[in-house]
Amino acid sequence: MDASSSEEEDEEEADQDSEEEEEEEDGDDDLRAEAEAALSEVLKRGKTGTFKEVIDHATAVGIAEDKIARAEAALEQHKATRKREAFEAELRSFLESDECEDLAACEEKEQQGIKFGVTDKGLAALREKIEDLNLRKDLAEEEVAQAKMFLEVYCRRFVKDAVKGRNTVWVELVGGRKQRVALNLDLTLHNLSVVKLQGDASTLATCRLDGASAMRAADYDEVAEAFGTLSEAEAATAVVILGGSSPWLFVEEDASKVEELLIAVLMLGGGGSGATPPGGSSSGGKKGGKKKSAAKTAAAAEPAEDAGEAPVSPRGGADAAPMSARGKKDGGKEKKEKKEKKEKKDKKNKAAVSEAEEEEEGED
Q1: Which of 13-27, 187-201, 261-275, 285-299 is most confident?
Q2: β partners of residue 182
Q3: Are 242 and 282 in contact (CB under 8 A)?
Q4: What is the signed CA dihedral for 288, 292, 296, 299, rounded to 10 degrees?
Q5: pTM greater than the 0.85 cutoff
Q6: pLDDT higher for 151 or 18?
Q7: CA–CA distance from 196 to each of 162, 165, 193, 202, 318 (Å)?
Q8: 3-state secondary structure of 347
Q9: How far is Cα 332 from Cα 338, in angstroms, rounded to an integer?
Q10: CA-based angle 40:42:43, to the nearest 5?
Q11: Whole-angstrom distance between the N-terminal and C-terminal Cα of the chain?
């Protein structure tokens, strides 16, 4: 009897242990299922710390290592994305401020952007600014010599051709009719004339070179009607000479010929491109005077900057104050408000970057 009772008790205990084990297994299964579900959720902003806890819990309950690895990779990607977005916001504020006129600061921002994984598209505006600042840097001594040589060579080419009769295409301002002409420069380098190449070879127009200026036709509104009749290729090489009774519109052979004409009129004429106000009045250059040698005209390009005109080269001089990112000067009060607003933005953006970095360090 006692033996029978003992066997029954053993069986009951075994059944009870089995049920407990099954319950524990079911509990473990539930925990693993919950952990896997948490791992599969998409990361949400501001939940980085919570997601780290979920990964630790999933590791503790025995989730497969490959799933843990994928979750950890997603966490790192999330943290990198937060840092990048914070930097991009900081970069936008930087480009709207006067600080972006500092080349070294721009280059530093570019390196930071690369570090944070900002795309080329995201860095495009910054790189355009860097390119612009590089072009506006003071010329090095070697570059100054090269620029003078460039100007002299192009001016000499123009003079050599023009004293013989430089072939070009004249475009009539009314109607846009084109005809082949010769642009002539007399031996004293004082007078320009436009002569027909066909028919009676009559002179169409004349002007004093020392009162002339030149620019690209696209930049001069008063020839817009005739300019509009040109093809895209012709428009790209169209130039205007001002100084006569009305503007002269020409279509040059190629871009090199355009540069020759603009440089020669700049150096030998009354001022830089665009010096003459609309209407074709003289820019008030030197009258009379001695004959200028083309070999000595390289120095004549420098006064154009003193007159407030843009140099032929895109590189700016030291005296030209860089424009703000908005292209205008701010008043005292407005500038102060702008500065305060910018400082608030910078603090907020820097705080976001610091928060992301501190969060990452804390979790590591």
Answers
A1: 187-201
A2: 167, 195
A3: no
A4: 30
A5: no
A6: 151
A7: 14, 10, 10, 6, 45
A8: helix
A9: 10
A10: 120
A11: 65
- Rounded Cα gap, residues 94 and 2, in angstroms: 91
> Which CATH number does the domain housing residue 189 bear?
2.30.29.30
Question: What is the pLDDT at residue 326?
Answer: 34
Does 93 reside within a domain?
Answer: yes
Q: How confident is the model at residue 89 (pLDDT cuts 50, 70, 90)?
A: very high
Nearest one of 234, 242, 239, 236 to 260, comparing CA atoms: 239
Dihedral pair phi/psi, residue 203, rounded to 5°: -85, 125
Asked whether residue 123 is assigned to any structural domain, the reply reads: no
Whether 61 and 149 share a structural domain = no
Give the domain extent around 46. Answer: 16-98
- Secondary structure letter of residue 33 according to DSSP: H
347: amino acid identity, one letter? K
In a domain, 162, yes or no: yes
Alpha-carbon span 216 to 233, nearest angstrom? 13
86 and 148 in a single domain? The answer is no
CA-to-CA dists, residue 108 to 21, 58, 111, 262, 339, angstroms? 62, 41, 5, 38, 21
Residue 9: inside a domain = no
Question: Pick from 45, 63, 98: which residue ends a domain?
Answer: 98
Residue 279 pLDDT exceeds 50 = no
